[in-house]
Amino acid sequence: MSSNWSLQSAIIFSGLVALLVVRPAPLRAQGMGYMAQGAAPLTDEQQSAANSALCSIISKQTQNPASASPSILSDRTVLSAAAPIFANSVHLPLPDASSMLQGYVMQHAGDVLASCAAASQAKEQTSKTSGEITQTPAPNNP
Question: pTM for the full model?
């Protein structure tokens, strides 16, 4: 009976080792911070902070953030510049924040760009309104 038990244990152990060899990344990465696949979605506060950080950097990279293409979000310099801003906003270590931001961008690029476009238009409208108020002509004195 003991030899059957040893044989079954060896088969199970071999199967587990083979599974780790065939699919190492997903199994080993489960406890290693935020992963884009299967990770918990960002909270509303985190999404807002991510959009804000990304839009801030995008507005520095392009003259018209409203017309930015999705390819700008795959630019490593954009993600690298936005990650510390996001990390500071949500009080997370930079590596975790970077991973979260990258996963968020991969899943919500359209939402990010829409948020940047809306923020850009609101900023433009505010500056137009401010300019109209501050540039009113002086009254004519007869």
Answer: 0.62
